[in-house]
Amino acid sequence: MPEEDYTVPIGKADIKRVGEDVTVITYGLCVHFAKQAAEKLEQEGISTEIVDLRTVYPPLDQETIKAAASKTGKVLLVTEDNKEGSIIGEVAAIISEHCMFDLDAPIKRLAGPDVPAMPYAPPLEKEFMMNADKIEQAIRELAEF
Amino acid sequence: MTLQRINMPQLGGESVTEGGTVSNWLVKVGDYVEKYDAIAEVMTDKVNAEVPSSYSGVIKDLIADEGETIEVGQLMCYIEVEGQLREPVTTVSETPAKEEKLDSQNMKTRYSPVVMRLAQEHNIELQTVNGTGKSGRITRKDIEKYINNQHHTNEAEIQENPTEDMEQHGSDAVEEIEEFTPPIIRRKPVKAKPGDREIPVTGLRRTIAQNMVRSKTEIPHAWMMIEVDVTNLVAYRNDEKNNFRENEGYNLSYFAFFLNAVAKALKKFPELNSCWAGDKIIQRNEINLSIAVAHEHELYVPVIKNVDEKSIKGIAKEIAQLSKKARTGTLAKEDMEDGTFTVNNTGSFGSVESMGVINYPQSAILQVESIVKRPVIIDNMFAARDMVNLCLSLDHRVLDGVICGAFMSHVKAILENISSDTTPIY
Q1: How far B185 CA sits from the closest chain A CA (Å)?
Q2: Is residue A2 part of a domain?
Q3: If you measure CA to CA, which chain B residue comes closest to A102?
Q4: Model pTM?
């Protein structure tokens, strides 16, 4: 947190981490999980680029998304939301529309399961929730692809 | 039903783990084979052989590709055998390995869009790129690395030229010279026109091609030719040949005399009986002469061992035996090993001058050309003499003109002085 007053620009995504192997595009709490996973994976020699979307609707920062996806060709999209109908589906569409010839792997989505609501039982809630381990595993799979 | 593996058998006698190259599959997936049926033609560096099936069953999966060299004991193919599981343990453990292999073959040629794009932009043949991704897939990073390496090679080549110039001008150039790596030149595709016949390169033809390219690209060849007056030899041999044929049952060839002379000369000049071994030159103790024998479209190079210890008769006998073996295709691996110097009878097809390609890793080859009657001036008078050209190709790393000149003169002297006194047949 900066000491002085500051504003976050609308419609401008932020590159939280620069990397070569896999691009993670996400927002909110998952940015922090992704950073934890990336730090861990760096020790294994896997270099991760992390994009924080910051603004999800509208407009998405298409230029940053395209540049980051094209850079590594391996894209992991992460959300806490259900997989179907979440904002990362839109991000995937932007990438496949513009970056087809830069892709080295299928665009991968990591999201909550397609169930109506957050379960009440703690083990199920844990299963639903995103965490750093799940992201780490998904990044590793993409890096090895 | 059980899956069994067929491994590369040990071919030839004493060589222990030397592998073979699969030159031809004689079966395809789905074929039924009986036990001991030939399933593949395999070639070691000298011998063609057929690999028999160890089981009766249906061929399931050919693991080794044609042209691939595999070690003794390594997997060639899988066969599905009918009946009882005799070795269930091996079968179970082998099955996943097979799946993995199949999988890796699949992914190796499955390219992502970015890989296809980069390959096209940089004109890269993807088969030459090593894939490090899942199941051998070529990733974007693999191809970028490949492109970078290409650039480095190019830069190195460009830098090499100025160094050479400086040295030629004799200035105080730096002594350190980078090791020369020849540029990689891609072969242009050659297309057959309608009506042309395409003959696949397999087996021995491929081995010959590889050996020739290796010899001509690695060895700096130099050439030398002398002409020898063999009138005495021709007269001597003509006197003896009918008798010899009657007594021994095979021909007394000129070639035996040439081999005898070469062996004697090699004894005196062991420098030519040697090979280049990178940081040293190995001078061979034994004088084993390789002789080239052509049969149909194939060229064999059997070896006569310890020629210096043999009489003309002994040499003629071995020539006759080896030629017969070559014609009947029964030359064994041992017949073609351990040559130290090659003598090639190019005269047998009428050649009067030729430049031989050295039989790698030897350091010289001598071509014996046709014996031709020619007018020669002796004591200011014309005389009709039997003349022959001897052409020597030498590895200029090992040998120089002076020593080879001396060697050739010695061979010439021996041949010109052949008579029943100097060279008894028995």
Answers
A1: 29
A2: no
A3: B114
A4: 0.49
How far does the CA of residue A21 sit from the closest CA of chain B (Å)?
8
DSSP B208-275: HHHHHHHHHHHS-EEEEEEEEE-HHHHHHHHHHHHHHHHHHSS---HHHHHHHHHHHHHHH-GGGSEE
Say whether B396 is catalytic. Answer: yes
CB contact under 8 A, B113 and A102: yes
Residue type, B257: F
Instruction: Say which amino acid occupies B423.
Output: T
Tokens read off for B32: 């039924």
**Residue A44 domain flag:** yes
Nearest by Cα to A28 from A82, A80, A73: A80
Asked whether the predicted pLDDT for residue B166 surpasses 70, the reply is no
User: How many structural domains comprise chain A?
Assistant: 1
Q: Which of B114, B134, B137 sits opposite A102 (nearest CB)?
A: B114
Classify B318 as helix, strand or coil.
helix
Using alpha carbons, select from B304, B255, B301 the residue that is nearest to residue B415: B255
Question: Omega before A59 cis (within 30°)?
Answer: yes
Instruction: Kindly report, residue by residue over B105-158, the tens digit of the pLDDT.
Output: 567 788 899 999 988 888 888 888 888 888 888 898 888 888 888 777 665 555
**Domain-located, residue A115:** yes
The one-letter amino acid at B226? I
Domains of chain B in sequence order: 2-108 (2.40.50.100), 110-185 (4.10.320.10), 220-416 (3.30.559.10)
pLDDT of residue B50: 83
- pLDDT for residue B177: 64
> CA B376, CA B366: separation in Å to the nearest integer?
24
User: Residue B112 is encoded by which pair of tokens?
Assistant: 């992502």
**CATH number of the domain where residue A61 is located:** 3.40.50.920
CB B344 within 8 A of CB B367: yes
A30: containing domain: 14-144
Mean confidence (pLDDT) of chain B: 83
* Chain position carrying tokens 């194939």: B298
A7 part of a folded domain: no
**Per-residue H/E/C for chain A:** CCCCCCCCCCCCCEEEECCCCEEEEECCHHHHHHHHHHHHHHCCCCCEEEEECCCCCCCCCHHHHHHHHHHHCCEEEEEEEECCCCHHHHHHHHHHHHCHHHCCCCCEEEEECCCCCCCCCHHHHHHHCCCHHHHHHHHHHHHHC
Of B114, B134, B137, the CB nearest to A103: B114
Task: Tell me the pLDDT of chain A (145 aa) as tens digits.
Answer: 778 888 888 889 999 999 999 999 999 999 999 999 999 999 988 999 999 999 987 789 999 999 999 999 999 999 999 999 999 999 999 999 999 999 999 999 999 999 888 888 999 998 999 999 999 999 999 998 8
Give the active site residue among B152, B279, B400, B421. Answer: B400
Question: What are residue A101's DSSP bridge partners?
Answer: none
- Report the C-alpha gap between B411 and B259 in whole angstroms: 10
Q: How many CB pairs under 8 A join A and B?
A: 31
HEC secondary structure over B198-225:
CCCCCHHHHHHHHHHHHHHHHCCEEEEE
Q: Indicate yes or no: CB of B141 within 8 angstroms of CB of A21.
A: yes
DSSP B357: P
